[in-house]
Amino acid sequence: MSESNDPSPEGYARNPWWETSIIDMEPGVIRYFGYPIEELIGNLSFAQMIWLMLRGEIPTKGQASLLDAALMSGVDHGPQAPSIAIARMAATCGVGLNNAMATAINVLGDVHGGAGEQAVELFQNIAAAVDSGQVLEDAVRDEIAKYVAEHGKYIPGYGHRFHPIDPRAPRLMEIVGLAAEDGVVPGRVRDIAMAVEASLADKSRGKSVPMNIDGATAVIYAELDFPAPLARGLFCLSRAVGILAHAWEQQCQGGRNKGPIPRNELPVYSGPAQRPVPGDI
Amino acid sequence: MSESNDPSPEGYARNPWWETSIIDMEPGVIRYFGYPIEELIGNLSFAQMIWLMLRGEIPTKGQASLLDAALMSGVDHGPQAPSIAIARMAATCGVGLNNAMATAINVLGDVHGGAGEQAVELFQNIAAAVDSGQVLEDAVRDEIAKYVAEHGKYIPGYGHRFHPIDPRAPRLMEIVGLAAEDGVVPGRVRDIAMAVEASLADKSRGKSVPMNIDGATAVIYAELDFPAPLARGLFCLSRAVGILAHAWEQQCQGGRNKGPIPRNELPVYSGPAQRPVPGDI
Amino acid sequence: MSESNDPSPEGYARNPWWETSIIDMEPGVIRYFGYPIEELIGNLSFAQMIWLMLRGEIPTKGQASLLDAALMSGVDHGPQAPSIAIARMAATCGVGLNNAMATAINVLGDVHGGAGEQAVELFQNIAAAVDSGQVLEDAVRDEIAKYVAEHGKYIPGYGHRFHPIDPRAPRLMEIVGLAAEDGVVPGRVRDIAMAVEASLADKSRGKSVPMNIDGATAVIYAELDFPAPLARGLFCLSRAVGILAHAWEQQCQGGRNKGPIPRNELPVYSGPAQRPVPGDI
Amino acid sequence: MSESNDPSPEGYARNPWWETSIIDMEPGVIRYFGYPIEELIGNLSFAQMIWLMLRGEIPTKGQASLLDAALMSGVDHGPQAPSIAIARMAATCGVGLNNAMATAINVLGDVHGGAGEQAVELFQNIAAAVDSGQVLEDAVRDEIAKYVAEHGKYIPGYGHRFHPIDPRAPRLMEIVGLAAEDGVVPGRVRDIAMAVEASLADKSRGKSVPMNIDGATAVIYAELDFPAPLARGLFCLSRAVGILAHAWEQQCQGGRNKGPIPRNELPVYSGPAQRPVPGDI
C-alpha cells in the first residue's frame, strides 16, 4: 500500500516527522490515496469522498447509498440535545460559525456521541462469540449481561427517553434489509441487532426497548466494515450539519449571551447561607 | 413559512425561549422543515440533506450535484495546513475523535477558513455595483481596490503559496460552466470571478494570481445563492472530513504528545539571558 | 531583549520556524524570560507568574495585588451565563474536564468575553484625545458618540441587565483608588472611567448606567498597562475558574445529556407544517 | 451545607433544572458559597479564590501558598508541547484569543493533561493499601505492578523524555517538606511519592526515573485533599497561562496559517501511487 520513496518536488524536502497515506502533494498536484483530485471532482459525491478519505478506496454505489442514509439521518435532534443548544448559545456570544461548530462538536463525547461506537463494539463482540461457536441467542444474552456489568444499564443503540419508537430506526433497518438482499452488505449485523432488540424486550417482560438512531446507524457502519471508533467520527460529521443549521438560524434570530433558560428564571441555590469573610485570612 | 400555533404533545409544554423552524418533534415524530424523517431517509443524499437543513427546501438534482462538488473538493490539504496538523497532534494527546475534530475545526477562522466567505462578499459587491450601472471591468477594478484598502493585499479566493495553479479550481469552474449551460445556475458569478482573475493578472503585469479552491467553491456557493457566512460553514463541513481522516490515521499510527517538530529540535529562544530572581518581590 | 545566539544543547538543534522569548529549555533547565524555574517556585504567586508570562518582568507587590483583585472578581456569574451553562452541559456528555473547560472558554467571544478589551480601547481612545488637547468631558462625549456610531448602543463596561448596581465594580474602583494614592498606578484611567459613567448618566437624563465588572477590571488592566487584547485573555483565565468549578459540580451531581430546559419542555416550532417529500427529487 | 428554601427575588423564579451551591445571586447581590463578593474582593488572592470555588471554603495562608506553587510551576513547557504549539498555530488562523486558548486547553487529555490525575489516584491507592495493613514498600511495588498491567509502562508523574531531572520537581518537594514540618499538610503523600521514586529506581537497576512536574504537583494536590479529577482541572488552569502567553506572543509576531514545519518541508507520503479514477463508480 505504499510508494515509500516518492521523490520530493524541487525546492521541497520530505520531513518524516509527518507521514500520511491520505494525501500527496506537489506544486500543482493533489492526490488522495493516489487519485488525482481533478479526476475525482465531478465524479464523486460528498458521501463517496468521505468513504475514500476514511477507507482509502472508492465505494460502490450501493455502499455509498447506505453511507448517505446513515449520515443524513442523524443530523439533528433539536435544541433539547446539548450539542444543538450549545451551538445556538455559542452563536450569541460573538464567535464565528467555525467556533460555534467546534464548541458543539466538542461535546459529542462518550455519553452524547459515543453510543454508535459502543453499539458497533457490542455487535462485533456478539459476532465474535458466534464465530467461537455460541448460538446467536446465547451470545446476545451473554454479551448484553457483560455490557451491563461493565458499563451500567443503558444498552447503546436501544431505547429513547423521548420517542417510544424512534422513527428513524425502522426505516434505516428496512434500507439495510434491501441492501442485504441486493448483496451490498452481508446482513449479519442486522440480524444480530434485531436479536438484541428481541432479547431486551424479553428481558423487560414485553416492554420493548426498541432500536434508536444510534443503533440503526451502528448497524450500517458495522455492515460496511467501518472500525468502531469511526462510528463516532461519522456521527460527528452528520451532527455537524444540524449544529451548523441551528447556529446559523440563531445568528439570524439575533440575541446576545443567550443562556439556557429565560432571564427571569434563576437557578436554585443550595449552598451555605450568607456569611462574612473571616478577618484573618 | 410558519405554523405558529402548533399544539404541544400531551405531557409536554412549548417553551418560547427556544424557537426553531428547522425541526419539529413529538414523541415518535421528527420532521425537518415539515418533511417527516422516515420519508426523507433513503431518498435524500447527505448533500441534499445539508441543503435542506440550511435552506429549508429540497434542492434539485443539479443543485445537489454542484453542492456535492464543492463539498468534496475542499476536504483536505495535508498536514501543512494548521487544521490538519492540529487534528493529528490532538489525536496523540488522549482525547476522543470528537474532541480532535472540534479542536481542528475551531481554527478555521477568518484567515484559515474565512476566504470563501470573503470571496462570496467580494463577488456580491461586484454584482451590486454592476446592478447600479457600472461596467463589469470597472466594478471589478474598483471593488478590488476597495478590498485591498480595507483588508490588505490578499484577495480572497486567488493565489496560492504552494500551487502555481490550484488543480481544483479549473475543474470546478468547468463544472459550474456546464451547470450554467444546463440552466442549473445563472453563471453570473462565474463571469465575475473570471473577470477578477483577469484583472489581477493585468494588475500583476501578466504574472497570474489564479483562482484557488476558496474562490472556486465561493463561485459555486454564490451561484447557488447561499448567504456568504454559510460559505464558511460549508467549508467547515467539508474540511471536517479531512480532519477526521487525519485524526484517525494518526490515532492508528500511535504516538504520544506529538509536537510540531521532531523532539531533538528546539525553538529558537530570543528572550533575556539567564538572570536571578530578585530578593525583594 | 535577546540572546540571539544561544547555543543549542548537545544533541539538539534550534529550529527557527519556532521562536519565543518566553521560555528557554535545555535538558534539566527551564527558564522563563531568563529566570530559572527553581528560583521562581516558592517565591512567585500564581498572579505574579501570570504577569511574568505576559509581560516579561516580575511585578511589584502592589501591581500583583491589583492583578489578583481583577482576576478573582470575574470568576463566575452562575449558570445563566452561557459559558457556565455550557460547561455544565458539556460535563454531562461524557467528555473530560479539559474538554468541558475548552468548550466553555471557546464562547467567551466578542459579545460574552470581549467587553473588557473593548472598554480598554475606549479608555485608551479617550486618553489619546485628551493627550491631543481635548478637555476630558469633551473627549468622553465624542468617543462615546464614535463608539455608538460604529458598534451600537451598548457601551462596553457599563450597565447590567441583572444588577442595578454590579456589586463588584464599586469595590474594585475603591481598590484602584487606594493603589493610585499609594503610587502603584497613575489613576488616570480610573478618572476617565468615572467620567464615562457620569456622561452616560447625564445622557440618560439621570437614569444611571453604572460601571460593571468588565468596566472595573478594564480600568485595572489599563492602569497596569496591559494591551487591550490581554484584557480578554485575562478574563478567560479568570472565568476558567468558575467554568471548572461548575463543570466539576455538575459532574458530581451526575446527569446524562443535560439540555438547556427540562425534558418535558419543547422548543416552539415555527417552520412549515407537515408536508410530503416530493417524488421526483 | 444548604439553604434549601432561599426565596426568589421579586420578579424572578427559581428553576430547579439548574441547581448550584457555588453562587447565589439577586439583583445587586453576588455571593460565592455564602460570602458576599464585595467582602472577598481585596482580601482573597486569585489562588485563594480558586480554592474557594472548588472547595467551598477559604484556605489558610499555608494551604494557599502550596496551591500557588503548584499552579505557577506548570504554566508552560514551550512550543514542543502540543498544547503550546497548537495555541500558537491557532493564533495565526484568524480566531480570537479565547478561541486559541480553548483550542489548546482542549488537547490536555488523558495523555497530555491527565498524568496529574492519574498520579493522585496511584498515590491514593497506595495509601489505601497501607491503611489496609500493607507495608509501604510492598504497597508501592504492588500498586505499580497493577498500574503497569492495566495502563502500560508509563508511570504517571515519573520520568521525562527531555529532562534527566525535571528542575521543578525537587524544588516543589522541598516546599512540600517545609509545609509538612509546619503542619500545613500531613506529608504522607510526599513519603509515598518518594517511595515510588525509590521503587522505580530499584526496578530499573539504579537507572533513575525521577519525579516530574506532574508527580510533584500531584503530591501537592493530594496533600491538600483535592479529588483526583481536579488535579487535571487545576493543571488546565495553570497551563492556560502559558497557552495565553504563547498565543499572544505569536499574534504579536504575526504570520498566517502557521503550520507545524517550514513550508518547504512536505510530509512523507506512504499511500498508493498515482492511479486513475475508475469509470464506473
List the helices and strands and how they pair.
The structure is a homotetramer of 281-residue chains.
Chain A lengths: L12 E8 L2 E4 L2 E4 L2 E2 H4 L5 H10 L5 H13 L8 H10 L5 H9 L9 H17 L4 H16 L16 H14 L6 H16 L9 H11 L4 H26 L11 E5 L12
Antiparallel strand pairs in A: 2-3, 3-4
Helix pairs in contact in A: 3-8, 3-10, 3-11, 4-5, 4-11, 5-11, 6-7, 6-9, 6-10, 6-11, 7-9, 8-10, 9-10
- Our Rg estimate of chain A from Cα atoms comes to 24 Å
The tally of strands of chain A reads 5
Measured by residues with Cβ under 8 Å of the partner chain's Cβ, the largest interface is: A-B, 89 and 88 residues
Question: What share of the residues of chain A lie within helices?
Answer: 40-55%
- The ordered string of helix (H) and strand (E) elements of chain A is EEEEHHHHHHHHHHHE
What spatial order of strands do you see in the largest sheet of chain A? 2-3-4
Distance between the termini of chain A: 67 Å
Q: Which regions of chain A have little confidence, pLDDT < 50, spanning 5+ residues?
A: 1-5
| Average of per-residue pLDDT values of chain A | 95
* Major β-sheet profile of chain A: 3 strands, antiparallel
What is the 3D form of chain A?
globular
